[in-house]
Design brief:
Elements: H1 21-39, H2 43-64, H3 71-81, H4 93-107, H5 115-126, E1 145-148, E2 155-159, H6 166-179, H7 191-205, H8 212-228, H9 236-242, H10 244-254, H11 261-295, H12 301-311, H13 324-331, H14 335-347, E3 351-354, E4 361-364
Amino acid sequence: MSYNWQQSDWPNFQFQTEEIEDLLLTYLHNAGKLEGALISLNESEREETMIELLIAEAIKTSEIEGEFMSRADVASSIRKNLGLHPQNLVRDQKAQGVGELMVSARKSFKDLLTHTMLLDWHISLLSHDTRMTAGKWRTHQEPMQIVSGAFGFERVHFEAPPSFRVEGEINRFIQWFNDTAPKGPMAIRHAPIRAAVAHLYFESIHPFEDGNGRIGRAIAEKALAQTTGYPGLSSLSITLERNKKDYYHQLERAQKSNEISDWIAYFVNTVVEGQAVAKETIDFTLKKSRYFDRVKEQLNPTQLKVVNRMFAEGPTGFEGGMTATKYSRLAKVSKATATRHLQDLVKIEALKIEGLGRSTRYHLCFENTL
């Protein structure tokens, strides 16, 4: 079996778009709605929305690679790297790394892609890992393979170009990426198509020992943002992580040919799904702002701490809802005090109650939030 980079037409990707014309129009329509929704927010709400999107993407791009981090650490890293809370302590160095990557990619989305940018992203992501040299292209002589299965029963999904070819392939990729940018000489008009090709192209080169997936998804986000003018409005990693088995399957199929119509259709559809997730985040930020406008003055410091903790889970909410036991642990108060606080929060319609007895759960109440 030969892979895409071994074929005579590499990297001249070919694809048809007739079957996804309606999807591309949907993407453009959604992009306009998202821009309008962002513009309607005040400066504080807009900043909070972008932070929420960054946190969620950082968590999910890591989970795709099987790395699970606390939301609190990732949020601290994002805010610290944005200069909002520079003294924040980030306990998990992996969270610190992915936070640096996400913020750097966001800040530089308008800039040309360069070798330095890619190597710096790699340093941000993996400088904590003593097993490898961060900020270097791979150099080992052994084949770079994507493998699954138990020892003795391995299955090779893909083999990347040998290390001696990496620098030349990356030079060509960077030139292609910049030439196909909105104002480039070979501009690709549809942002999700360019993002789809860019992601597949980079992943097929697989230039690093590790971190290729996370950096490759950052590149796809950069391609989208350069056209829309707003980074992070596709929630790409969130959508990919929801069905990462299919993501890997589609990527493996696409790396066997340079005719990539199926990959383009899959990726564009994923981007459109991600726009819906981004819209949910914008709506959530707006509801959060209006919620605090309505109830903040009625909360005591302990209640405010717990409510903020519930909001910190993002649009998906606090898993399992709030209980008196959880409240007691988070607030460091007795269970009786926790129950009384929760009942008070229900009275002022800051929380709503669900279930009875031991099954009682409390959720954020948005019913009276305009």
